[in-house]
Amino acid sequence: MLGRSNSSAIDGDPDCTEVLEDSSRSILMGMISQLRKDMDLHRVTLPTFVLEPRSMLERVTDFMSHPNILIEASTKTNSLVRFLDVVKYFLSGWHIKPKGVKKPYNPVLGEIFKCKYKYDNGTEAVYVAEQVSHHPPISAFYYGSPDNGIYIYGDLRPKSKFLGNSAATLMEGENHIIFSHLHNEQYDVTMPNVYAKGILFGKMILELGDNCVVRCKTSDLICELDFKTKGFFSGQYNSVSGKVKKESTDEVLYEISGQWSNEIFIKMAKASNKSLFFDVKSSSIHPKIIEDIIYQDPLESRRLWSKVTEAILKNDMDKATEEKTLIEDKQREDAKERHLKEIEFNPRYFTLVQGDQYEFKGIPTNKTKAKTDLNHLIFSPVNHN
Q1: pTM of the predicted protein model
Q2: Backbone angles phi, psi at 217, to 5 degrees
Q3: Is residue 133 scored above 90 in pLDDT?
Q4: What pLDDT is stored for residue 6 in this prediction?
Q5: Is 65:93 a contact under the CB 8 Å cutoff?
Q6: What whole-number distance in Å separates Cα of residue 379 and Cα of residue 365?
Q7: 3 state SS of 189
Q8: Residue 105 near residue 51 (C-beta atoms within 8 A)
Q9: Fewer CB within 10 Å: N-end or C-end of the chain?
């Protein structure tokens, strides 16, 4: 049976480091021997021992794990203070990850994930994500909390590449955060890239790297963030730094530094003293409310992948591979049938609006009915006949 053995990394973050057993390493090497540098990995079937037992559609909800930050941000009257809270909110979602080097399931076309949230202030929110395209892979998502006037929408367009002793997932696509009660004030967010290093030799390590931004055009503010991968001889794991600027003049207002997996600090540009911005250890993850699997739609992530997940959690990688293959074969059969019948796939919750851009079908137009309408659209039973 294939498996993995976890070991703590003396010189790094043990949660991001993994040592493969010989049997698992040999399978990975066999797969890698068929690859060439800069090759797109999306069509490559990965062995199950590198999988995180949840879908990428659910992975997006990690950024809804600290809602109090965004709810409080939406109440601030000072645009700069509000902007800093949005930056904090964005940085707060990266520490939620499995141990070792793991990749979420690649969603199949038409797969969906949906959940609800109930907050301490008596308000609620809903979330839905759907795999709207398979080639290229595009995951569209929408979060709405009408009570708080907060909406988040966007898409992920990952592109995976083999780079030799590492593999990269280039996280294309954007997030948009809207505060509807502030004249639809919008924040545009891009993502850092993900690197799995040491896949040929040494310890396998998962790191975030490269630049991304948080921008609010109406406030003329931008935060340029740099997620840094550890150097061979120097540096530390999971480092992030950034500068908050007035975009029109390039004036630096604040500087950010620290580790996204531990403590992040902030200071005014001309100050020497820094203060704690976000502390992983003192944070708590807000729970999602998810329908029991037996009541879920067949294409909902947790039901669709339930047998794969069950096998992975039992460390039965042969069974996990078998169940994963059944899902992938069914996806190929469905694609072939659509092609023969000349049927075009139409997403359930999103509409193709311009080029390859997708828009949520249920964007609220009536404030008083927004919560009811969102719940009805997302959670009403679907007739597949």
Answers
A1: 0.87
A2: -65, -40
A3: yes
A4: 40
A5: yes
A6: 19
A7: strand
A8: yes
A9: C
Residue 179: name the closest of 217, 152, 149 by CA.
149
* Token couple for 279: 């502390």
The beta strands (E) that lie in the chain are given as: 4-5, 17-20, 51-55, 103-105, 112-118, 124-133, 138-145, 150-162, 166-172, 175-179, 185-189, 193-197, 204-216, 221-228, 239-246, 251-259, 263-268, 275-279, 350-354, 357-360
Are the beta carbons of 181 and 149 closer than 8 angstroms?
yes
Say how far apart CA 287 and CA 367 lie, in whole Å: 26
DSSP letter at 330 equals H
Q: Which residue has the tokens 């062995």?
A: 47
Q: Is residue 195 helix, strand or coil?
A: strand
Burial class of 132 by CB neighbour count within 10 A (0 to 12, 13 to 18, 19+): buried
- Judge whether 351 and 142 are in contact, CB under 8 Å: no
Instruction: Using the Cα atoms of residue 299, residue 302, residue 306 and residue 308 in order, give the sign of their dihedral.
Output: positive
Please state, in angstroms and rounded to a whole number, the distance separating the CA atoms of residues 90 and 305.
28
Phi, psi (5° rounding) for residue 140?
-100, 145
Q: What is the DSSP string of 12-67?
A: S-GGGEEEE-HHHHHHHHHHHTT--TT-B-TTSPPPGGGEEEEEHHHHGGGGGS-H
Place of tokens 């966007």: 154
Between CA 157 and CA 140 the distance in angstroms is: 9
Asked if residue 139 lies in contact with residue 131, where contact means CB atoms within 8 angstroms, the answer is yes
Q: Look at the chain and count its residues.
A: 385
> Which residues neighbour 385 within 8 Å (Cβ) at sequence distance 6 or greater?
none
User: How do 150-162 and 175-179 pair as beta strands?
Assistant: antiparallel
Beta-carbon contacts of 188 under 8 Å, excluding residues fewer than 6 positions away, are 174, 175, 176, 213, 214, 215, 216, 217
- With CA atoms as reference, report the closest residue to 177 among 253, 93, 279: 93
> What pLDDT is stored for residue 34 in this prediction?
52
Supply 77's token pair: 């009257």
At 112, list the tokens.
């969906």
Q: Please report the pLDDT score of residue 317 as a whole number.
A: 87
Range of 11-20, 196-205, 333-342 with top mean pLDDT: 333-342
